[in-house]
Amino acid sequence: MAADAAAHAPARRGGTFLSLEGVDGCGKSTQARALAERLRAAGLDVVSVREPGGTALGEKIRGILLDPANGAMCDECELLLYEASRAQLVREVIEPALARGAVVVCDRYLDSTFAYQAGGRGLDAGLVRSCNALGSCGVLPDRTLVLDMPAREALGRAVGASGGADRIEAAGLAFQRRVRDAYLGLAQEDPARVRVVDASGTPDEVARRVDEALAGLGLPVGEGVRHG
């Protein structure tokens, strides 16, 4: 039993794990890419990943989750698919990157599952937290940034940019508002890890707020770092 537990324990990490979160259309993916570019420009080994996805298997699961044709998917199936994609990403990509000392920048992680499946879908919060513990393989970010803006504005951006809603965006405005409220609740529960970042303004303005929210991690971001 002890040997089995050791085999599934999180790998020892020397790197830094960052996740960016927020409702659909908040600009999270843009900021995740820009942050990774700034860190690489500073000479760091940076691994950029996204959820769901980030591995060959995870990208197949992503296609299933976002396909509007899968509207009959039940909430429990959705939850477990997200966790399956996450577990593969952690074991295949995140843990090895952290073990070698890299910075991992993840576009969504387990807080998305809590916000969307517990907050948005209404699944039992304790159940979702238990599933998150399994899907994350016990690996938590060092810092999680929630890019925050009104749900109506964010959803309008998301649907306008893609030319149509995917299966999650199609859940509507009330759903996105519940998701946003869940994110803000997580920030109140765990302020040491989860920081709220105002996502309004230009990408450069938001990038500066992102850097400020990463203070204390020893990363080369902030004053003197070029944005844009």
Task: Pick out its properties.
disordered C terminus; disordered N terminus; 228 residues; 9 helices; five-stranded parallel β-sheet; Rossmann fold; alpha/beta
Structure in words:
The protein is an alpha/beta fold and 228 residues long. The protein has a single domain (27-213), classed as 3-Layer(aba) Sandwich (Rossmann fold). It contains nine helices and five strands. It has helices spanning 2-7, 28-41, 56-66, 75-99, 110-120, 125-135, 151-162, 173-189, 203-213, and strands spanning 16-21, 46-50, 103-107, 143-148, 194-198. It has a five-stranded parallel β-sheet with strand order 2-3-1-4-5, with helices on both faces. Helix 4 runs parallel beside helix 6 (125-135) and helix 5 packs antiparallel against helix 6 (125-135). Mean pLDDT is 89; it is low at 1-9 and 223-228.
Topology:
Elements: H1 2-7, E1 16-21, H2 28-41, E2 46-50, H3 56-66, H4 75-99, E3 103-107, H5 110-120, H6 125-135, E4 143-148, H7 151-162, H8 173-189, E5 194-198, H9 203-213
Parallel strand pairs: 1-3, 1-4, 2-3, 4-5
> What is the name of the CATH topology?
Rossmann fold
In helices, the fraction of residues equals: 40-55%
The second-level CATH architecture is 3-Layer(aba) Sandwich
Indicate the low-confidence ranges by residue numbers: 1-9, 223-228
Strands ordered across the widest β-sheet = 2-3-1-4-5
